[in-house]
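Here is a tokenized protein:
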Amino acid sequence: MDGKVLDEAGVIAVAKLPGKQELLTMLCMALNGNIRGLAVALDAIREKKEGEAA
């Protein structure tokens, strides 16, 4: 890893990491949750401003 020799514990730790596809899936799920939260917050702001204007 980065030109360094791993000891036994390092190799075991790397072996336990999820695969690339699983990591990408986890990233997409996290981003999707953040985008959904942003959409909810923006909608709440819109509703508040509409209520103040009425």
